[in-house]
Amino acid sequence: MKVAAIQMVSAIAREANLVRAHALLGQAARDGAELAVLPEYFCMMGARDTDKLGLRETAGAGTVQGFLADAAREFGLWIVGGTLPIESDDADHVFNSSLAFSPEGKCVARYDKIHLFFFDNGTERYDERRVITPGAQPVVFELPSRDGHAWRVGMSVCYDLRFPELYRALAGQGADLLLVPSAFTRTTGAAHWEVLLRARAIENLAWVVAPAQGGTHENGRQTWGQSLVIDPWGTVVAQQAAEEGVVLFDLDARQVERTRAQLPALSHRVLA
Predict the structure, then answer these.
(1) Does 40 participate in catalysis according to the annotation?
(2) For 47, which DSSP code?
(3) Alpha carbon distance 185, 145 (integer Å)
């Protein structure tokens, strides 16, 4: 199954971001992708954290959800829509939600980001807890590819990457493909991004697809980029360093089977 990890440098205006996402999804489809994954915050990189509150959508309805459903139908793609703000029970907070759409335009899965980013080095400070409500449930969905394989796709977002127990839970639900749409900062990404992604692939003997934000944004934020595809042995097989683009690779489900047969570490676990 050919996948596309879409890298963006999202702006403040939602409409401008949807135009760019549409063009990149079209490129992915023309290049033969079956699954295209957009980065975290693909639809907005606001001037302030609270901008997310103004663009929140009700689950099942809204501009961004409509865009994703329409694009999936138009291009005949499975699309995982990075993240977008979905309303919560708290008027001052939203969920940071990743939604999966089938080529028929149906939303088949929703994952609410569980682990919320906090970083303060005295120069940069980020605190997602100010406006985001954490999710609580790991999510895996089934994707039947054209070659007849039923992929078990584990969903995660950005800062989740630092919590290996989430990915172990996804593997426990049969995941052989792990998605990590992200917006790593330049500071944390330069130090940790690739090594964390490779570790999650190695630990779980699974493919990892990690689309990222990558560049200097209109709001001044700098994101690391380096959108990656990593095989079950932990080898980086495709990547793009910076700026927008489409990272393509043809995933082989048999590689998961071979790697897990040669090194059956998942069956050797002792501790829960």
Answers:
(1) yes
(2) S
(3) 33
Q: Which residue out of 34, 43, 57, 158 is catalytically annotated?
A: 158
Residue type, 128: E
- Whole-structure pTM value: 0.98
| Residue 66, CA atoms < 13 Å, CB-side half-sphere | 6
| Residue 87 a catalytic site member | no
- DSSP letter at 116 equals P
- On whether the CB atoms of residues 27 and 233 are closer than 8 A, the answer is no
Read off the pLDDT of residues 181-237 as tens digits, 9 standing for 90 and up.
999 999 999 999 999 999 999 999 999 999 999 999 999 999 999 999 999 999 999
Q: Which of these is catalytic: 40, 57, 128, 244?
A: 40
The percentage of residues in the chain with a pLDDT greater than 90, rounded to a whole number, is 99
pLDDT in tens, 147-197: 999 999 999 999 999 999 999 999 999 999 999 999 999 999 999 999 999
218: domain CATH number is 3.60.110.10
H or E segment at 45? none
Coil, strand or helix: which one is 46? coil
Domain count, the chain: 1
Q: Which residue bears the tokens 């080529």?
A: 103
Residue 272: pLDDT over 90: no
DSSP 146: T
Domain of 87, in residue numbers = 2-268
Residue 2 is a catalytic residue: no
Q: And the tokens for 150?
A: 């039923």
